[in-house]
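Ticket #53: bound-state structure for zinc ion.
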Amino acid sequence: MAKVEVRCPYCGTNEIVKYGKEKTGVQRYKCMNKECCRKIFQLEYVIVDPIRQ
Ligand SMILES: [Zn+2]
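RESOLUTION: The complex was predicted; output attached.
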């Protein structure tokens, strides 16, 4: 089971909590670093077309 480490793109901390999802189903995260203003961000996923090989 692969562990995905989520880091804040603004400050680089791994003090992240999940913060709901977009309507498109994209997971959002919230930075818990006080010095980072607790920004909300989302990871960018690369969708691989399963048909293409
Ligand atoms: Zn941050």
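RESOLUTION NOTES: The beta strands are 16-21, 27-31, 40-42.
TICKET STATUS: resolved
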